[in-house]
Amino acid sequence: MSDSPHYYAYGIIADEEYDLEISGVGSASRVYTVHHRPLAAVVSDIDTLEPEQTDENLRAHDNVLRTAMEDGKRTVVPMRFGMVFKNERTLKNVLRGGRGMFNRALHEIDGTVELGVKLIADENATFDRETVREDVAARLQGVSVQEAENGLFSDRLVMNRSYLVDYDQQTAFDTAIDEIATEHDDHLSVQYSGPWAPYNFIDIEIGAQ
What we know:
alpha+beta; Alpha-Beta Plaits; 2 domains; 4-stranded antiparallel sheet; 5 helices; 10 strands; 30% strand; gas vesicle; GvpL/GvpF family gas vesicle protein
């Protein structure tokens, strides 16, 4: 790595010291924080301004975010893949300039995670998709804060949504998914993913510098 590495940013948290030995983007071995009160950016060192969007790097990006969230139920405003800042000054300028929107986002998603749910019809299965979709949606709304539609990109997709779920409701959400999968196992399968950082419930656009 070069003598003056750049900063690869994963997300924003409330101001605190955070230092962890974990595999990051670009083969980084340590994740830590850069501070500008009342915020901190979760970062790792990187020697390029344009990291490759490989499967390994994408997994590392998500894994760092997931670990930061699960370690102490920390609230994290996620950044999209590939956010690299030349130096500490430019990163702190972003923290300073975006302080208002970052604070609002942290407040809006405080104590939550994102969970993904897909209902996939078995091949040649015949059933009332709208009835199933409405029933499942109503049941999951009762154990979630908010939902986002991700679109039906396949003929077999019955439902494809992300849910914002409180930490203390995650077990209830898991139970609801298990019940749905059992009740409908003769005509569809359930793909359940997460927890993820709440990408689908944050609307912040930042350019790397």
